[in-house]
Amino acid sequence: MGTELHETAKALVAEGKGILAADESDRTIKKRFDSIDVESTEDNRRAYRELLFTADGVEEYISGVILFDETIRQSSADGTPFPKLLESRGIIPGIKVDKGTKLLALASDETITEGLDGLRERLEEYYELGARFTKWRATYSVGDGIPSEYAVWTNAHALARFAALSQEAGLVPIVEPEVLMDGSHSIGEAGNATGRALQALYTELHDQRVDLYGTLLKPNMVLSGYDASNRASVDEVADATLDELYRHVPAAVPGIVFLSGEDATAHLNAMNARGPHPWELSFSYGRALQAPALKTWGGDEANVEDAQKAFYRRAKFNGAARTGSYAPEMETAAV
Question: Which residues are catalytic?
Answer without folding.
Answer: 176, 218
